[in-house]
TrEMBL record:
The chain crosses the membrane at residues 12-31. It is found in: Cell membrane. Belongs to the glycosyltransferase group 1 family. GO terms for molecular function: Kdo transferase activity. The gene is waaA. Residues 41-219 form the 3-deoxy-D-manno-octulosonic-acid transferase N-terminal domain. Keywords: Cell membrane, Glycosyltransferase, Lipopolysaccharide biosynthesis, Membrane, Transferase, Transmembrane, Transmembrane helix. Pathway: Bacterial outer membrane biogenesis; LPS core biosynthesis. The lineage of its organism: Bacteria, Pseudomonadati, Pseudomonadota, Gammaproteobacteria, Lysobacterales. InterPro entries: Glycos_transf_N (IPR007507), Glycos_transf_N_sf (IPR038107), Kdotransferase (IPR039901). It comes from Luteimonas salinilitoris. Its EC number is 2.4.99.12. This is 3-deoxy-D-manno-octulosonic acid transferase. It catalyses: lipid IVA (E. coli) + CMP-3-deoxy-beta-D-manno-octulosonate = alpha-Kdo-(2->6)-lipid IVA (E. coli) + CMP + H(+). It is an enzyme of class 2 (transferase).
Length: 428
């Protein structure tokens, strides 16, 4: 597809604005660094300045952060298993995403931060790694990246493609450019029919859209989960346990209030608290202490003691195992207007799931889970607390929910195989 005059003008304007904003990117890294020290590291990768010699990565997968890395994990595992000859490069944008790549594959894939979408940085990135195939996870539509891949003949697929109505609206200013960039990809492997339709509205052609399902349904459960739960229970006994997972800052006060109320009924109730972002680990521990509760953390004590009221999961990569330790889970990002987080992780390990109303990033999964009877959605913090209380009090309800959710997870599996079938023609 040759570059048109309109495309050239749009790309030029877009690139000019990005270069003007380069000082803002530096400020952003510094600002984030004060909250999470890892942002002070590896700046050269952000601008595609590399010290090692150029080398080829046969397949490149881009997953922006932890959620996308987890979603892509079954696909990457399948590629490693079926094609051990492939050299895989996984890019992320966040340090937590980088840490998750290391935890999951520990040297079996290469990792580097994706550079900012500056045309020069993108060209240096592609010159250095020379990918033969690009798989972009979910909704990372960077125009210069896509155009440069097109210009070099690198086939690109958007896999597990998701586009909410809100995200579609967010692209309205850049839609003429993003739409043209989107038409350079081989296939948009959409999670659902609705996602596919929204990608068409953004600019993809109907022939580019293939509905492959959601990779998150192919979630793998740690074979050591049962042993993990036994170790946990050996330490705390038969106490009731709930988990507040992937919480954001504005959800922290409601979590404290919900726990306070629940402990009025169950004085020995334990809260497992796993904030979404590492920079909130210390803050939530301090809030729990300020509330008058004995509080421990995973890094400091490994397991909670019998007298602990709150146990902060201040590690990465262990969330699913701790879901398995809880009787019921609240999944955050849903009381604050974030859009929710992965509801299938607790469902896959057999834990009843409660969430708030803000679910636009997981609307299809939430709808299916709720219709199947595997999810409770609270309209606000008080309703979430009431749902948690009802489920803690009724093991029969919990069992019915977990059974329905497990059946839905099993029914939804197969997206990895369908995605591999789509991209197979371009696998080196």
């Amino acid at each position: 597809m040759p570059e048109t005059l309109v495309e050239r003008l749009l790309r030029g304007l877009y690139s000019a604005v990005l270069y003007v904003l380069v000082p803002v990117t530096v400020y952003h890294l510094i600002w984030r660094g004060f909250r999470q020290a890892e942002y002070f590291q590896r700046w050269s990768e952000r601008y595609a300045s590399y010290r090692d010699a150029p080398h080829a990565a046969t397949v490149w997968v881009h997953a922006v952060s932890v959620g996308e890395v987890n979603a892509a994990a079954p696909l990457i595992d399948a590629l490693l298993h079926q094609r051990p000859d492939l050299r895989l490069l996984v890019t992320t944008i966040t340090p937590t995403g980088s840490a998750r790549v290391t935890t999951l594959w520990d040297g079996r894939v290469e990792h580097v931060y994706l550079p900012y979408d500056l045309s020069g940085a993108v060209r240096r990135f592609l010159d250095h790694y020379r990918p033969q195939l690009g798989l972009i996870v979910e909704t990372e539509l960077w125009p210069n990246l896509l155009f440069c891949c097109r210009d070099r003949g690198i086939p690109v697929y958007v896999v597990n493609a998701r586009l909410s109505a809100r995200s579609l609206r967010g692209y309205r200013v850049l839609r003429p450019l993003v739409g043209r960039a989107l038409r350079t990809v081989r296939v948009v492997a959409a999670q659902s029919v609705d996602d596919g339709r929204r990608f068409e509205r953004l600019g993809a052609s109907a022939g580019q859209i293939v509905v492959t399902g959601n990779l998150k349904y192919d979630i793998a459960v740690d074979p050591a989960l049962d042993a993990f739960v036994r170790g946990f229970r050996a330490r705390i006994g038969a106490r009731p346990v709930w988990i507040a997972a992937s919480t954001h800052e504005e959800e922290e006060a409601p979590v404290v209030e919900i726990h306070r109320r629940l402990r009025e009924r169950w004085p020995d109730l334990l809260l497992l608290w796993a904030p979404r972002h590492p920079e909130r680990f210390r803050a939530v521990a301090q809030q729990a202490v300020a509330a008058g509760w004995r509080t421990a953390t995973r890094k400091f004590t490994h397991w909670p003691d019998a007298d602990d009221a709150v146990f902060v999961v201040d590690t990465l990569g262990e969330l699913m195992n701790f879901y398995g330790c809880a009787d019921v889970a609240f999944v955050g990002g849903s009381l604050q207007d974030v859009g929710g987080h992965n509801l299938l992780e607790p469902a896959a390990v057999g834990t009843a799931v409660v969430t708030g109303p803000h679910l636009h990033n997981f609307s299809e999964i939430a709808r299916r889970l709720e219709q199947a009877g595997g999810l409770r959605v609270g309209a606000d913090a008080a309703a979430v607390g009431a749902a948690l209380e009802a489920l803690l009090a009724d093991s029969g309800q919990r069992a019915a929910m977990t059974s329905a959710a497990a059946a839905l997870v099993e029914e939804g599996r197969g997206a990895v195989e369908r995605t591999l079938t789509v991209v197979y023609a371009d696998l080196p």
